[in-house]
Amino acid sequence: MSGLLLADKNAVIYGGGGAIGGAVARVFAREGARVFIAGRTQAKLDAVEREIAATGGKVETAVVDVFDQQAVDQHAAEVAATAGSIDIALNAVSVMHDQGTSLADLTLEEFIRPIDGFLRTLFITSKAVARHMGRERPGVILTLSEPGAKLAVGGILGHAVSAAGKEAFSRVLAAELAPGNIRVVGIRPHAVVDAPAAGSYTKDLFEQTAAAGGQSVQEFLEGGLAQGTLLKRLPTLAEIAETAAFLASDRAGVVTGTIANLSGGALVD
Asked: The organism sits in which domain of life (predicted)?
């Protein structure tokens, strides 16, 4: 029996060229999964593919616009036809949004952008993969949210509503898909301390807030946000990826309809 968590599993990662998506793809491949990474930028996908291939992992890439439902459906069908099934899916797609602007200065467009963007892609990708999952092979859909789903702080209205929406989506979808042998589990990391160095959009996201306090983004993350957690530190990409691999594995086979809290204690559920 293989000691690998995800041996013989087929995993699709949307946003697979990004910081979190790439980190998860590398761990999934290390744990034996055949990984299909999809995203908007071929160069970023190629970089992740090279790293995985260099360690002997199995990986394929595809440029897919996750806002295009027909394109996502077609890609999922092609993956299922090639691999025989889709066992795991993660939506790690990022949507740039505002943080730091209060209601008086927030436009309707800025408020709606993350709500529409995040939930639209989550609906499209979940619907596409679910039809190729479950039954005799257990399926797992992983989602990502943020502490904003439960934090009562100002200046993050659109962000908070979108995060809460993603968590509600995950819980309700878990109930709907459970009879088909599909689990749905949310992962709620805080801001990721090493994400800026990995090329994520975290720098752009927090630049305005950090500058207002006379800090760099890294200083804001390590000295500001981190100090608001019980552990006095933020999660790393590796910690998120390792958690995702466990939750996607059969060892977490009874975990569904819940949110894994990786906030370092910024939230205590």
From this structure: Bacteria
Domain span holding position 124: 10-193+233-262
The proportion of the chain whose per-residue pLDDT surpasses 90, expressed as a percent, equals 71
Residue 145 has φ and ψ, to the nearest 5°, of -135, -160
**Residue 101: enclosing H or E segment and its boundaries?**
none
Q: Give residue-wise pLDDT tens across range 194-206.
A: 766 656 666 666 6
Domain count, the chain: 1
Tell me the CATH number at 141.
3.40.50.720
The helix (run of H) or strand (run of E) holding residue 105 is: none
